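Troubleshooting log. The previous structure file for this entry was overwritten by mistake, so regenerating from the original sequence record. Sequence copied from the archived sheet and checked twice against the printout by T.R.
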Amino acid sequence: MTKLGIIGGTGPESTLLYYRAICEGVQARLGDDTLPQLTVESLSVFEVFRYCGAGDFDGLTAYLSEGFESLAAAGAQVASLTAITPHIVFDRLVEASPVPLVSAVDAVRDEAVARGTGKVLLLGTGFTMSPETNGFFTRPFTDAGVEVVLPDAAEIEEVQHRIATELELGVVTDETRDRFVGIIDRVHRAEGVDQVVLGCTELPMVLNDSVSPVPCLDTVAIHTRALVDAAVGDTEPRPGI
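Regenerated output below.
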């Protein structure tokens, strides 16, 4: 089995979602008595926000690259981020990383194409949704023929605020869930989107297919499947206990 490395802490709640999903994915493929070889380098989502807010993408690249170097030193053979916002500098990270990286953006784009999706609503942090910085996410989709629609400016600000002050701290409220569902419903009615991209890895804490007016592209579920594929490869299941 290939040893995985993930950058955690960006934020802590999504790191837990990733760890659980990777473990469950490996067990589903190889049996309940098999767990992944996995190491976590915990950084800070708030440092990521500070770098992005200052437009210091060189600093962000250096900060994350140091994390990937630590993962490689711990024996990781394949690595990934566990957040969407740091993908702003993903191409730079690929060049600097000592190990191959698995992109969440590419994984979600591929899933959208496989589902025959024509138009998606993107929800995420302000940095992921902002017209000034969202090209790292929207361009791969539009290049694949999938139109990306954004909330309006006030909604972008509100979603960012609720992510940073609630979800990143593990706070889940019905009010925030209802507000996000309302945004999805408004954009769906106005723009006719097929699906919503949960483009922040904390969003699955409050959104899923059972509450959303349109089907969700769950970034955590989709990305972790790709990571399980990378970890398991052609490994055969062992006999049960």
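Residues 105-218 form a domain with the Rossmann fold fold (CATH 3.40.50.1860). Archived copy saved in two places this time.
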